[in-house]
């Protein structure tokens, strides 16, 4: 039987202080202003504590992203339809992609920083959950289709670097990105 390791209460308090300090710095100065030394000072902890806890700025970015990701996952796993259970698969896929597009834009700079940690870093935790959810819905929508590859194809347009390029460099609005996703979903 696996033992669940609980976080010490002082460690949990420090984590909350660190994340609140980091979120405050990002809100005021953007991701560019996020330095480990400033976060440590604002949180009242040592820089070593920050590095042991999060590793680097990318690790800190992942931690900041995590709270919103947990809420997003709860919404698509147990929330009301059409994002949550109870709607037809096509409508759930559409609602999921639209919600993920919104979430990506809201945290775009943090996602870009987190994605820069390692070439394949974006394919871990959250991506795996998003992919699994979409693959399950696609399999219901198109039995016999390669649901795993189709889930990748649906998620690809929402990669943070591509969203940043399209919205910031090309001036394409999020509504246009969502409309293109709808065309992909209709093609299923």
UniProtKB/TrEMBL annotation:
Membrane-spanning segments: none
Alphabetical keyword list: DNA-binding
HTH tetR-type domain: residues covered: 12-72
Domain of life: Bacteria
The organism of origin for this protein: Nonomuraea muscovyensis
Example of a GO MF term: transcription cis-regulatory region binding
Name of this protein: AcrR family transcriptional regulator
Xref: Pfam families: TetR_N (PF00440)
Record's keyword annotation contains Transmembrane: no
UniProt-listed Gene3D superfamilies: Tetracycline Repressor, domain 2 (1.10.357.10)
Keyword Calcium: no
